[in-house]
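Sample 1 of the test manifest.
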Amino acid sequence: MLLDLFREFAILAFVAFGGATALLPEMHRVVVEQHHWLDNTTFTHLYAIAQAAPGPNVLVVTLIGWQIAGLAGAAVATLAMCLPMSVLIYLLIDRWQGFAGRRWQQAISLGVAPLAVGLVFSGATLIAQAAAFGPAAWALVVLAGGLSLRTHWHPLWLIAGGALCGASGWV
Amino acid sequence: MENHQNAAAGSGSRPRPDLRALFFGFSSVGLSGFGGVLPFARRMLVEDKGWLSAEEFNTQLGLCQFLPGPNVINLAVVVGKRYGGLAGACVAPLGLLLGPFLIVLLLALAYDTWGELPRVQGLLRGIAAVGVGLLFAMAWRMATALKDKFLFLPFTALTVIAIAGLRWPLPWVMLAGLLAAGSLAYRRLGRRRD
């Protein structure tokens, strides 16, 4: 189990272009649909907890690991997500900097960008599906998205507002 | 050794953090970063400590974003290596992750204890709804920042269909998408140069 967990998340780390947020759809596919480690509801709950916690977004994998295999699972999932790329970056960064501005490097960053947009969008739709949002929740989605685009409010206030609406049973 | 030369070449009067400073500097970033850590990393590295100049930050971040993996952790490895070699490259990401890791574990414990309560479930639903709204907003912002939209937005649509619709595995979708979108970008870059 722990080995499976490590393998799955280490593979994820290598395709995490656009950061951990872009990985949500794949995490859902692997953890919920493929291995049945978690159900839809738990997955959305863990996503919500990670949203409300400080620190890098990647820590949603810590929560997933915890739910699947306790403390060892949390440690293994986090390490699998962070360690392999860190080692690679440590070894390659000096050479990499020499490539800065090359045509193929620019081409990859240009090419990755539209894919990353698609991944973030997919993550949003999949979480909405997994949580089986009703009309009230969708209204909150639209409100939060609109406020985020139109104002410079800190996301933490929106999250606190969402928590309040949810705890009062409106969503 | 070469890292030290790099750092010296960057600027003469740049402060040189030791391992302790690296650990606590990145800890403060990890613990203050709600809803995205990068702005806090920038404030610490560029404005508060002066470990990187604004330009250096942009270049380094560009390189880290170009590579897969969590960007902020990649950035911590790069800055840690530069100022503390191998030890620094271990200490900086550790500092970034340790505090938030412990907090998340506490929250997980709380979820195990109270997660079944309807009020808690409602609260998490509310947060998830706001989170989804923030994700849509983020996707919108990223999409409007794309260059050559008419060329590249179709790749966004194809990604959504493959990932959210057909639920194909991400590694293959990324590989195929990167080959297709990357080679298109490569050709356009060439044409622009001529």
